[in-house]
Specification:
The protein is an alpha+beta fold. It has 2 helices and 10 strands, in the order ββαββαββββββ.
């Protein structure tokens, strides 16, 4: 599945930035949320001939809301520690409380950093079932 840039809706929020993500299923929701977060953080240079760095993420949480929060915060942490902007997310296992994924990223040198996202907050983070599928609002601490 190809996720398109801007496949999310920006939300007005005092001092922070938020997005609303909609998806037909949990895997797509987690993937879209990750793309949205890094899209907000950075814009790729035209000269992006860097070699992608692969890493693996495995997380356990009490429920899907906490798992989404942990997933996004883990990506921020890994990206900061390795000076990467993640650009590809392949989730191989996902349930309400477990995630296993391979993620790929490029060095931050290939990006203009637009916003420094420090963390994802639990504020208003609640995955909802809608007529169109799943929806979640995510607030980023910038």
């Amino acid at each position: 599945m190809k996720i398109m840039k801007q496949d999310y809706e920006l939300l007005d929020h005092t001092a922070d930035i938020g997005v609303r993500v909609q998806a037909p299923d949990l895997e797509t929701l987690f993937t879209k949320a990750a793309y949205a977060m890094f899209d907000i953080m950075a814009v790729k240079h035209h000269r992006s001939d860097g070699r992608p760095v692969e890493t693996f993420v495995e997380l356990k949480s009490d429920n899907s809301n906490e798992l989404l929060l942990d997933w996004l915060n883990e990506l921020i942490s890994l990206g900061d520690a390795r000076c990467l902007i993640f650009t590809d997310f392949a989730i191989s296992e996902l349930s309400a409380n477990f995630l296993k994924a391979e993620v790929k990223g490029l060095s931050k040198e290939y990006f203009d950093i637009e916003r420094d996202i420090k963390a994802v907050t639990a504020h208003h983070l609640n995955i909802q079932q809608t007529k169109k599928g799943l929806e979640v609002e995510i607030i980023f601490d910038v």
